[in-house]
Structures are given as structure tokens and as C-alpha cells.
Amino acid sequence: MNVAFYAPLKPPDHPTPSGDRAMARMLLRGLKLAGCRVTLASRLRSYERDGDARVQARIRARGERAAVRLLTRLRAAPADQRPAAWLTYHLYHKAPDHLGPAVTGGLGIPYLVAEASHAPKQSGGPWDEGYRLAAAAMRRAARVICLNPNDEPCVRALLGGNGRLCRLAPFIDARASARRAARPDAGAVRRASLGLDPEVPLLVTVAMKRDGAKLASYRLLGAALARIAHRPWQLLVIGDGPARVAVDAALAPLGPRVRHAGTVAPRELPAWLAAADLHLWPAVDEAWGMAFIEAAAAGLPSVAGAEGGVGAVVRDGITGLLVPARDPDRFAGAVAELLDQPDRRRAMGEAARRTALAEHDLVPAAAALRQILDQVAGG
Question: What pTM was estimated for this model as a whole?
Fold first, then answer.
């Protein structure tokens, strides 16, 4: 089956890494594993972050022109090269889809959306047009695939009880990650490369160093760890970005026990995670957090802030601990609790690995995607 793929927020080959880009790439891998021939329909970004109506109008005009060109090209293509379905990834008011509805309507093929959010509070606001366009696209979609359970109530209310909303757990290549993390001495080599003490518990966080929610999370992390500075621990920070100076300043009061590894290649990340004992992330404004699944596949439990859909990937008391959002005292307490209970920490890590393999792996996700496509595109 030929499938056209489009990510209006950020194309999967965008140079800047992010969880959104990573999930787009995993969806492409899942579709290919499901036996689909996937083409990237467009690299046009519709994302507008500032609520500027003039910029939004210019983006919409570009999108409408691009849709006409794409539809003309696809209509002229041989039948075996035209898509049988279209999948748009991550649709919301700041990044509406100007292409998919028009092209699929012109070709008469199913339109699907993965990870869409609908926020009625945006009606009449700075992104009102994007809000209405995204809502209209969801209403005409043959399926809306929900990755974040937190999005479900509003999307379900928009669609009504017509069975078009379906769930798909966010996923990675968990089996490959687990294998790489399990290689002999994978973690020990990384610890040694940064001069980390093998006898002191190692905490790890994996996140881009960006302004906004990421910086807020890093600051909360620094405030929480400062509350347990009297305990023995080390912190490994994996990630880089434009807010590096601000992030490093937020963690500087913790002293030399903090090590910054910078950007780590995806294939190398499991080995770095294998070096640690506990994964931490306060998750300010987090949708669900790819890093939690990556940590789980490597056998690490997480301490996480209970925001967005994080509770769907971190099971409180089983694969980690969830704490009230943006509460550094409770976050520090949860970290201290697991530092004091190494056996419980290891048991949670094993449970996290099993959960990642069973529920957040590429193989079952590919099968689920194929089933959805067969339902709407006639097999």
C-alpha cells in the first residue's frame, strides 16, 4: 500500500532533533515495517508560534498553492505510484494541515491523522484560524490515531461517538534499544569516559536544552536535586541546544557532580542509559516524553512530573514514580526514596523494560498501523 506522510509541525528530516521529529521517524519506520511504501508528501511547515495572524495567512496561502501543485502531480502519476492513503502526524492549532484535506479530497483517498489535539479554549484566540482548520481536518479524517491519552476527551467530543478515534501507544525500537543497553560493559565504559564514580548512584536526564518548557524542567530539576545535595549521587545530562548556557547555569549550583555529555547519537543512547541507575525528568508541559520510553527500554525506572500524558508511559509505583507537577519538594522526595531502595529501583527497572517491549515497541505498533490502514483503505 502506498501512503503519503506529512508532518506540518516539523518534517522527519528536519536538522534539529526533538521528540516530535523522533516520533515522526518512528511512524515512518512503522509504516514501512507494515509493508507500506511511504513517500514524504511535503516539507512545508505550517507551525506559527507567536499567534501572528499575518504570518498565519502567508503560511496558509503557501499551503494552498502547494496543495494544488501536489494534487496536480499526483493525478498525473501512474496509478501504482499514487497514494492509497494519507497520514498527517501531529495536528493542532499552531500547526494546521493545509495540504492533506485538499489532496485526499481531490484523489478520493482516506485521510488519517496521528497525534491530534483539540483545545476549545483556543477558539477566538491568536490561533483561531489554525484551531478551526485543525478541527475541520479532524472531522473529515477517516481515523484519528491518539498517541497521548490526555488528548482523547476533547478529540472524542469533537468527533462524536463514530468509532473514528483509535489508540496507538507511542513507540520506539525497544527491542534494539534493550539489546544495546544489555551489551557487556556498555554502561561502565561510558561512566569511565566521563570520570564518574562507579560506586556512587548515577542519575540521568535526557532532553534538549531549549527555552520554554525544557528550561523550566531543567530549573525544577536543579531545585529538586539541591534539596538532596547531602546524599551521594551523580547526575549525567544528555542533550544540547540553544539554551545551553541557561540550562548549565540552572544546574551549576549542584557542583562538579554534574556531567554534561552533550548530544548523543540515537544508536549510542541505550549504552549511556545503561550506565545510570535512575532516570529523572520533571516533564513541564510534556505531552508524554520519548525519553521515558527510551529509559524504560534500557531498564531504567523514572521519576517524573505527572503532566500531560506522562502517566501513560510511566506507571506510578511499577515502572517509576510520578509526583505532582512542578513540585520540587515531592520530586526530591521521590528521588531520595528510590536512592534508598536499590532493590526496589532495580525491580522497577525490570518492569519498565518488560513494559517497553510489550507495549511501546516498533513491531506491535507496525501491526496496529497496518490494521488501521486496512480498515480505511480496503486492505
Answer: 0.94
